[in-house]
Design a protein that fits this description.
The complex is a heterotrimer of chains A (555), B (273) and C (168). With 555 residues, chain A is α+β, with helices and mostly antiparallel strands. Helix content of chain A is 21%, strand content 18%. In chain A, strands 3-5-1-12-9-10-11 form a 7-stranded mixed sheet, with helices on both faces. A 5-stranded mixed sheet of chain A has the order 7-15-14-13-8, sandwiched between helices. Chain A is globular and about 80 Å long. The two termini of chain A are 38 Å apart. Chain B starts with a strand and ends with a helix. The relative contact order of chain B is 0.11. Helix content of chain B is 29%, strand content 24%. Chain B is globular. Chain B is built from 11 helices and 14 strands. Chain C starts with a strand and ends in a 14-residue tail after the last helix. Helix content of chain C is 30%, strand content 16%. Chain C is an alpha+beta fold. In chain C, helix 2 packs across helix 5. The chains are: A alpha+beta (555), B alpha+beta (273), C alpha+beta (168). Chains in contact: A-B, A-C, B-C. Chains A and C meet through helix 1 of A and helix 2 and helix 3 of C.
């Protein structure tokens, strides 16, 4: 049941609401209950052709030869589409916002990098004819060693999954092979902690399993454009992706969508639109490409596998004084959106808690698994699960109630986050209080009286002296521990602030060593990193509009 | 390959058509074959169907029941004489599947499907097969299942013995999702007893092998025993003997073997939960 | 490719179509006669988004050989309302927020109709059983069950009769 707790934050809010809290009928409900809502597949076209793709049976193999002669002669076949037919057969989804290198072909050209990767497409008069023709294609493969585990993939000598990223790790800002967060000195704090809790968490891939499988229909329009009915959750993203792969101005593509039969993040990868359009371009007829259920479950992009190592230092009184996290995101064979997932992850660490020493590294790793993509809070869900299980373990370790333990460590307004942004509009304490109340979970009065608006800031707003490092630097001379400190990496740009006395460490009492003057002076605010120069003739909207956590923009 | 549908008024004509065409398959409720066609199975060239009304008939007498292979799960459920089979019919698919899926088709369902057949197996069923040319033939269900992929005739009916008493026949399907879920395993048991002692017990498993199988070791261990904790102990110890379950998305082979004795105990002792 | 003529009644109107060998009812409804209310979700009888009524019984259109429908009556969600007058199930689905993406809704409605046509006052368990072959991946089962219970009550079913404003 929906319930508004208006006693909270009432001074920060305008409660004169007209819509929020009122029951309102969905605009699309009448269509849904009368069976008249039109999804992408609910459009009739005279002369509709059907497209099916041939998928790799191997997780990693070189393509030695492809013989389509028999398939082309098969009854009902209108066109076989090969890699060479794709105008720009290399893309990465986030290239539309200048993030990452093109690393994925629409149709595999030289090798296949995951089981189920599309190799060619057949456009035929019926699905049955397309399926039948697929059985007549002869492909010779040279199987290659495959790697399915993120940590195995990062070892030297591991099979190179995707030659665009020869170390099997996404390259952030063309500089590091991971996302980096440094705040204070975790090692020193671990030495001072009463307890250390170190755990490993992992999560398997999850398929969105929408009841409507991924699909689209593309048809020539009379004005030299193509109309595209699609299930996409990201209409303009799909439009841009298709325009790039097909090398046509986007105004020749007329995308219609927005009515999605369940997406949950699994319909942002433009899995079908480029091939439907290419099929329509090559045949001059409407072409429908819909994944069948098996394709959707096995080869539709899932939420990726994740692994998180969490090491915490906690004091007997319940204060967490250090948190070190190493996270691995399994992108599968291609980047898709996993690079962004790892960015979200590092932006979320250390969770909604004020911890004076934080050290985190997030890797986006390539393996020979199905490319992963977005799904409901991806980048956050797995690490949040890990951190919250860890919180319960820490509470248990120090003998505290887990609810009170969270209240004690929660962000409060004015606290400094590890990302060097001040915490505002904090509400975790209140959430935990209400959750405890709803669950009839007893918490002590002093914890019931705490709130997010007081007790923060001051010493808790201090940016501790932080040493930076060049670990994971891309290119020659790989990470060297002896590398002298450099200005902090771009993800941890501090806001302008007066130099902080070393004694003013967050929270008292402090472990003795964290009060010692660190070897590294407080870092100056670095200039924002400059994005790689682009030709001036092609204005780019760029990563800065997407999210500041990409590290290319400061608030 | 273009598919052809051939419809015949009698089972013998259908059997002949089936025998004359290597790509022909007989379609009953369609829940197996239409799925294969939808998924691009190009080995099917001809679908043979029959409008023979006898194909759907259920004939029962006090000791035996003959069920036309075309009888659907809803037909079983609508027949009061077949109350002992209702638990097994009720757990096949959802309502729509039960309005389509037939008893004959269930004999061909691959593991982990085919739970109804598990029940038939524990009821000493016989399969009636119409040969391509000539007469009908009878075959014990167990023998039929071993060769079902190579069978050339047409299944026309299944005949089962009525259980000795309503309580003597038990069926249990274990699934993770309720009310409709695919089997982790299923167990059917016919447990006739005289003077509290079992004799000629028949126990069958679904999803514990590529086809439903008899649990021979369990049956032997139950002979002459009583249905109590001590009496069934040897049977539970032998529960997994002869099983070759698959690892699939629902359960691993290890898991299926581990939980089998637990569910067998519940079936034998009449426990719920 | 050889085509076979098939005649059937769709939502009370006679239809005649030519079907391909092995074509399923779902294709015939969607591409043959233009009734797009039944959806393709799996093609294997798992999801229920293609549920229609054939002679009043719920069936999965994707697994129904089109030719078996010759001479029979097929009902889909498009035929539920009487012009602008919604069926009680449709009204109840709207009032109970029993649809999110809407892709399962047509199938859910037909599965529910099959139940209510046979059992005017089902228990909650019977409702859950009746839609057990229909997947709602937005996981809105509770509102859907509430809606079906409410529709039954408002149609004047059994113990809920006192709430009834029969609108059938």
């Amino acid at each position: 049941m929906l319930e508004f707790r208006k006693e909270y934050f009432k001074d920060e809010r305008d409660d004169r609401l007209n819509e929020v809290g009122q029951p309102r009928q969905r605009q699309d409900m009448l269509g849904h209950v009368t069976g008249r809502t039109r999804y992408f597949d609910d459009h009739a076209f005279e002369g509709l052709l059907h497209l099916k793709v041939l998928r790799s049976p191997h997780p990693h193999a070189r393509l030695r030869s492809i013989d389509t002669a028999a398939a082309e002669r098969a009854p009902g076949v209108k066109r076989v589409i090969r890699a060479a037919d794709v105008p720009v057969n290399k893309n990465t989804l986030l290239s539309l916002i200048n993030f990452g290198k093109d690393d994925e072909p629409l149709l595999a050209a030289d090798k296949v990098r995951y089981k189920g990767e599309p190799i060619l497409a057949i456009v035929a008069e019926s699905e049955a004819a397309a399926y039948d023709a697929l059985t007549k294609v002869r492909v010779e493969y040279d199987p290659l060693p495959a790697v399915f585990d993120v940590e195995e993939a990062l070892k030297s000598g591991a099979p190179v999954v995707n030659e665009t990223y020869p170390t099997n790790a996404f390259e952030y800002h063309e500089k590091y092979n991971h996302q980096k967060l440094r705040f204070g000195d975790v090692e020193r704090a671990f030495a001072q902690a009463d307890f250390i809790v170190e755990e490993r968490y992992q999560m398997s891939p999850i398929e969105h399993a929408p009841t409507e499988t991924n699909g689209s229909i593309a048809a020539p329009e009379t004005n030299d454009r193509f109309v595209v009915h699609t299930c996409t959750q990201a209409l303009f993203f799909s439009l841009g992706t298709a325009a790039k792969l097909l090398d046509v101005p986007s105004n020749r593509l007329h995308f219609l969508g927005g009515t999605v039969g369940g997406g949950f993040g699994g319909k942002v990868d433009s899995l079908t639109e480029p091939l439907s359009i290419l099929g329509a371009m090559l045949t001059g007829r409407p072409v429908r490409y819909v994944l069948n259920r098996e394709e959707e479950m096995l080869y539709g992009c899932p939420r990726g596998a994740e692994r998180h190592y969490v090491k915490d230092g906690v004091m007997r009184d319940g204060r967490i004084i250090a948190r070190k996290v190493t996270s691995y995101f399994d992108a599968g064979a291609y980047t898709r959106l996993s690079s962004y997932g790892a960015v979200k992850c590092i932006a979320h660490i250390p969770g909604p808690y004020t911890i004076p020493n934080v050290h985190a590294e997030c890797y986006c790793v390539y393996t020979n698994r199905t490319p992963a993509t977005a799904m409901r809070g991806f980048g956050i869900t797995g690490v949040d699960f890990s951190l919250e299980v860890q919180m319960d373990k820490l509470a248990h370790k120090v003998g505290m109630d887990p609810m009170e333990f969270r209240i004690l460590n929660a962000y409060r307004d004015g606290d400094m986050k590890a990302h060097r942004r001040e915490a505002h509009n904090c509400a975790l304490i209140e959430c935990v209080q209400v959750a405890a109340e709803k669950a009839s979970w007893p918490i002590r009065d002093e914890y019931r009286r705490m709130n997010s608006m007081t007790g923060g800031g001051g010493e808790r707003a201090v940016i501790p002296p932080t040493a930076t490092d060049e670990g994971g630097r891309i290119g020659a001379g790989r990470p060297a521990t002896s590398t002298p400190p450099r200005p902090p990496p771009p993800t941890v740009a501090p806001p302008p602030r007066a130099p902080v006395p070393a004694a003013a460490q967050p929270r008292a009492p402090q472990p003795a060593t964290t009060q010692a003057r660190p070897a590294v002076p407080p870092p100056p605010a670095p200039p924002p990193p400059v994005a790689p120069a682009k030709p001036a003739a092609t204005p780019q909207h760029g990563a800065t509009r997407f999210s500041s956590v990409f590290g290319t923009r400061r608030r | 390959m273009a598919l052809t549908v051939k419809t015949f008024g009698s089972m013998s004509e259908a059997a002949a058509a089936l025998a004359s065409d290597r790509t022909a398959r007989f379609i009953s409720g369609g829940t197996l074959l239409m799925r294969a066609i939808n998924e691009g199975d190009t080995s099917i060239g001809t679908l043979v169907r029959s409008t023979d009304t006898g194909y759907r008939q259920i004939r029962s007498d006090p000791s035996r029941v003959e069920i036309g292979a075309g009888a659907r799960m809803v037909d079983i459920l609508a027949n009061r004489d077949l109350a002992f089979l209702h638990p097994a019919a009720r757990i096949v698919g959802g309502p729509a599947v039960r309005a389509m899926a037939t008893v004959g088709g269930n004999l061909f369902a691959g593991s982990p499907y085919g739970d109804f057949t598990t029940a038939l197996l524990a009821l000493d069923a016989t399969v009636s097969i119409q040969a391509a040319y000539g007469g009908a033939q009878q075959m014990p269900l167990e023998q039929f299942l071993q060769s079902r992929d190579r069978s050339s005739g047409l299944v026309t009916a299944v005949t089962v013995s009525r259980p000795a008493s309503p309580d003597a026949f038990r069926f249990r399907k274990v699934s993770r999702v309720k009310p409709k879920g695919v089997s982790v395993l299923s167990i059917a048991a016919h447990l006739p007893a005289t003077g509290g002692r079992l004799s000629n017990a028949r126990v069958a498993y679904g999803a514990m092998a590529p086809t439903p199988i008899r649990a021979r070791a369990v049956e032997r261990a139950l002979e002459g025993r009583s249905l109590d904790a001590a009496g069934i102990a040897p049977a539970l110890a032998a529960a997994a003997e002869g099983t070759t379950p698959a690892t699939d998305a629902l359960a691993s082979a290890w898991y299926r073997r581990e939980v089998l004795p637990v569910h067998l105990r519940r079936v034998l002792l009449g426990e719920t939960g | 490719m050889a085509k076979t003529p098939v005649q059937f009644r769709l939502n009370g109107s006679d239809k005649a179509v030519f079907v391909d060998g092995g074509e399923n009812l779902l294709n015939v409804l969607r591409r043959g006669v233009g009734d797009m209310s039944a959806k393709y979700g799996c093609g294997q009888g798992t999801c229920g988004v293609c549920t229609v009524l054939v002679d009043g019984e719920p069936q999965l259109a994707c697994l129904t050989l089109a030719e078996t429908c010759a001479g029979r009556s097929v009902d889909t969600a498009l035929g539920l309302s009487d012009g602008p007058n919604l069926h009680p199930l449709q009204t109840a689905f709207m009032e109970h927020f029993a649809a999110q993406c809407g892709f399962c809704t047509s199938g859910m409605l037909m599965a529910a109709k099959a139940l209510l046509d046979r059992n005017a006052s089902p228990t909650r368990e019977e409702v859950a059983e009746a839609i057990s072959g229909n997947i709602c991946r937005c996981t809105g089962y509770e509102p859907i069950i509430n809606a079906i219970m409410d529709a039954a009550a408002k149609r004047g079913g059994g113990s809920n009769r006192e709430q009834g404003h029969a609108r059938v």
